[in-house]
């Protein structure tokens, strides 16, 4: 998951449709796009954003975002995503300590982050932008601290650690991939829904790449007898997550200030 990358991608798409760089901003905290453009240009902007795989709903001037997740079946699907992500995130974190794998710990952080973000989305239905920003701020700080912890222990293990148990590492990585698939399946019928639905779908789909990276790292650990593949993947995932956490905190502060 990389909220900052996705927000930047949407901003670039809008700019490609003729919007000035300082006239568009996508908050990684509240997932709201602030756009200053003529009404006549909106269809072209919407088409450009849709080409990225995302969409957006218009917000009435002076109002708040329209309630998302209105379909009860979609809410049930999101609860499944929350339970699978948070539940397996804890399991994979324990597995990371058991196998001595930093990559598993970093991947677990991704599961926990996705579960927390989806849970926040469920709780925040009907909340004002200010309260969503405050919640995102707390979440960003918490996930940032977890990221720093994984990075710090990864650096320490680079000097003091033995190679992880490749078999256990690969097993937990394969289970993680299966859990991600299980989380995606309930969302398949909603993948062409509104922006929030589309975002959750894309996050779940893209996370499979991180799971596959853990499995590949496990194979390389077994083949090379070295801890470096595990450490490199761990730093990559944790660093990406730390960048996203900082973007959430930065945008939450901006949302609170502007609001």
Structural notes for this entry:
This protein is mainly alpha-helical. It has eight helices and two strands; from the N terminus they run αββααααααα. The chain has helices spanning 3-16, 42-50, 72-99, 102-123, 129-160, 166-184, 195-224, 228-258, and strands at residues 24-26, 33-35. The longest helix is centred in the middle third of the chain and has 32 residues, at 129-160. The model is unreliable at 60-69 (pLDDT under 50).
Key features?
two-stranded antiparallel sheet; 8 helices; 259 residues; single chain; mainly alpha
Q: In brief, what are we looking at here?
A:
With 259 residues, this protein is mainly α.
C-alpha termini separation: 27 Å
Number of helices, counting only DSSP H or I runs of 4 residues or more: 8
Task: Return the average pLDDT rounded to an integer.
Answer: 78
What is the element string, with H for helices and E for strands? HEEHHHHHHH
How many β strands by DSSP? Answer: 2
- Largest sheet descriptor: 2 strands, antiparallel
Q: Please state the overall shape, judged from the principal axes of the Cα atoms.
A: elongated
Helicity level? over 70%
Low-pLDDT windows of residues: 60-69
Beta-strand residue fraction? under 5%
How are the strands of the biggest sheet laid out side by side? 1-2
Q: Which radius of gyration do the C-alpha atoms yield?
A: 19 Å
Label the structural class.
mainly alpha
